[in-house]
Amino acid sequence: MSDALAEGSVIVVSAPSGSGKTTLCRRLLDDVPGLEFSVSHTTRPPRPGEQDGRDYHFVSGEEFERRRAAGEFIEWARVADHLYGTSGDVVRRTVARGSDVLLDVDTQGAAAIRRAIPESVLVFILPPGRQDLKARLEGRGSETKESLQRRLDLAKAEIEKAGLYDYLIVNDDLEAAYERLRAVVLASRSRLGRQKRRLQEILSRF
């Protein structure tokens, strides 16, 4: 796997729901050339404004299980009664042609990606605090009292796993958080694993 990924980087971004991850990732994809989004499959229903094939591939539980049994997912997880999975074939094809691939997955998925692709770059987006996250979730207007509490409890459990990541970015200021995330992606392109071929070409001319 490592040799196959030498041409591109796998960038994994995780965050509790409501931390601004989707906004940051969409801007990153619009702004940074050579970066492609791996659209995950999920059994959860679309939220307002989400589009099938752009945000997620929304599939039935039966379809998800068929793909999982066929070994299509490089990682998959059950989160809040819904299933999520990342296509291994999409990731491999993207990095093989020299592009970076951006994965939006939870902490379980990030751990699985790290096991499968040790050189992947893991980034965790943190909310400034519990009250700020609660206000953002309430602002959606789609949470019941019970679902809000579940999301906050899940957020705490996810944040407890943030120490497994390579980079932590606190989204207390959207512009500053975006610049830090963009810097991580650009810096990953200068890592030795990415530049070995170019290094050898330069050395051959000395």
Describe the structure concisely for a colleague:
The protein is of the alpha/beta class.
- Please tell me the CATH architecture of the domain at 10-38 and 99-204 by its name: 3-Layer(aba) Sandwich
Specify the number of helices: 8
What Rg do the Cα atoms give?
18 Å
The average pLDDT score comes to 89
Question: Main sheet?
Answer: 5 strands, parallel
Kindly name the structural category: alpha/beta
| Strand order in the largest sheet | 2-7-1-8-9
CATH classification class of the domain at 10-38 and 99-204: Alpha Beta
End-to-end Cα distance: 31 Å
Beta-strand fraction estimate = 15-25%
Uncertain ranges? 1-5
Order of helices and strands: EHEEEHEEHEHEHHEHH
According to CATH, the homologous superfamily of the domain at 10-38 and 99-204 is P-loop containing nucleotide triphosphate hydrolases
CATH topology of the domain at 10-38 and 99-204: Rossmann fold
Molecular shape: globular
